[in-house]
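A quick aside before the break. I want you to see a complete sequence-to-structure record at least once, exactly as it would be stored in a machine-readable document. Don't worry about memorizing anything.
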Amino acid sequence: MSTVAAQPVPNTVDPRTARKITLAGCVGIFAELYDNGIFGFMAGTLAAVFFPNADNATAVQFVFLGYAVSFFFRPLGGIICGHLGDRIGRQRMLVFVILLISTATAAIGLLPSYASIGIAAPALLILLRVAQGFSVGGEASGAMSFLAEHAPEGKRGLYTSYAQIASFLSLLTGTLIAAAMTSGLGAERMESWGWRIPFLLAVPLGVTGLYIRRRITDTPNFTRLREEGGLSRNPLKEAFTSAEHRRAMLLALFIPLMNGSGYYVLFSYMPTFMSTELHFTKVQGLLVTASSLVAICLAIPYMGRLSDRIGRKKVIAGAAIAMAVVCVPCYLLIGTGDVALAALGACVMAVVFAGHTGVIHILLVELFPTRVRYSAYGLGYNVSAALFGGTAPLLMTYLIGRTGNVNVPAFYAALTALGTLIAVSRIQDRAHLPLRDA
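That is the input. The structure line, written in tokens, reads:
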């Protein structure tokens, strides 16, 4: 292990360069998360195309099983991309992951249906979802580390929160595209050929993101560490041999618990939940989700800025307490069957969830030094996403089917919020300290 000085070094990136890098990073994140999110929004149509012989509820469960399986390859993506990102640089890996997921998403749009090639169609669908999962596993920790290591001191929360806005704008774009096409084409034409278009849009999005990411430079923290000869030979092994890093990885697994009930239930699963369980139309479900996505995009930068002032710990703890309080009343509003009340309930939860999603990634970045950041953060966060996030839509569909209680997602939201509250209480807040290199 290299004897690099462990004293934090303040970031000297000028604000103009930081803004340019942040914009470039956000464009890439937009493309990457659109590719991942569109699968969830199209679940109902994909069920009809790839599982036509099953009843609707079972077919949707099969689609979400494919959605969940891909998440178990996210830790593998986090490990491999994290190792290489800590060894050869963040920028190179961010180019690789956007190329991989764009190719996989476009390939989904070209797949033959079950009617054409039988069981091979859903098998290929799941295989491509695995490629998407691997890519996203390398994206989250890499992109957030990249942005945080470029951000000016005192503004890391704000600058990294922009990336979360990009991710939710990508979901909003996918929602509106799915809603417009479902409304304009109707179910028959959507199932015939229309479902392919949202996936094929990955091509221009991917090309744009790839072009931008190839033109940006690596971070000051990584560059400085490389020039000083301080890069780790085996960052993940180094992380596991340190009691401090092992504890931080465990926290990185449990602090994001709220993501399971937020990102994957409140947004990805919501349109399917509303149309299959609450008997809204598909378009109504998508529009309610779109309204909550607008609300969270407006709230996220305020939460990021607030965390720069009062600390990450207080903002995330406050969001967790608020979610535990409001989730059941909000789901009762959604369950009324009234679109306006459903939108109100979804928007309230979205604003509360902004206090978690707008801050969680910078909190995790700050848990680790540059030498092992991409690897250790990526492993902890992606294992959490696999266990509590990707399985959430499948779990909700199964539990609602077994219990007949459509408020199961609300109980899940409360439970995961309390889990996050307990975990975040165990950290030392580093919001007002420079990032560590070693």
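Two observations worth writing down. The domain at 15-424 is CATH 1.20.1250.20 (Growth Hormone; Chain: A;). The mean pLDDT is 86. We'll return to this after the break.
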